[in-house]
Amino acid sequence: MTVAKSLRVGLAGLGGVGLEVARRLIDGAVPGLTLAAVSVRDADKARRNLPQIGDMIALRSYDALADDCDIVVECLPPEHFRNIALSAIDKGRLFMPLSVAQLLDNWDLVARAKEKDARILVPTGALIGLDAVRAAAEGTINSVKMITRKPPAGLDGAPHLVKNNISVKNLDKPLKVFEGTARDGARGFPANVNVAAALSLAGIGPDKTRLEIWADPTIDRNTHRIEVDADVARFSMQIEGIPSANPRTGRIVALSTLAALRGLVAELKVGT
Q: Which end is more exposed in the chain, N or C (fewer Cβ atoms within 10 Å of the end residue's Cβ)?
């Protein structure tokens, strides 16, 4: 009997999401996957959090991470997205971006992946019902709307708020801080609404997907409600995610990443 080769995973970034994924891979949570290398901005901090770095896990620059890996998972601040994406794609790897909003403004990477025989796999993240949206998109979707509500701390400092001099501090009631397309929302809130970017890619695109964003001091969870009207079905969904140590990201994102990785090696994969 032939023993299946373990796929080598590289993690770009060890923040709240990346560190959780790393620890679970090291613990053997997903048989068939090995954490081979990481890329980080602060090497000393990374070694404190993961003593295995330098021993069983290689520490690589962003440009060299894909040298050791079959799969590159991006968990970085938006400004580093393109560099790590190009490195993975140009080496024909499977690239898994968590900063999905950045993909909308770097759409040439999709054609580049085809040219380089690479693949881009977007995990579900904090989204619910992505399979249903993808299925509906095989027919005709008339409209998609997403309403995101976050505790104010999860939105503070977003470029759209800074540009428009909108303060979310000391709010005593919900404040709508954005209404528009998913593309414009992704640009204005690059670290906050990757779910909206993923939804738009699964459905009718970033320019037709409508998005509202609310800073809501009455909640302590990141809440996303999706409303879809299609020729085969009309449905709405809502998820209330517990924020991670980084209030801009939900705790479910790390687990969604693991689930997507598991689907690459599991004998049984449920869902499209």
A: N
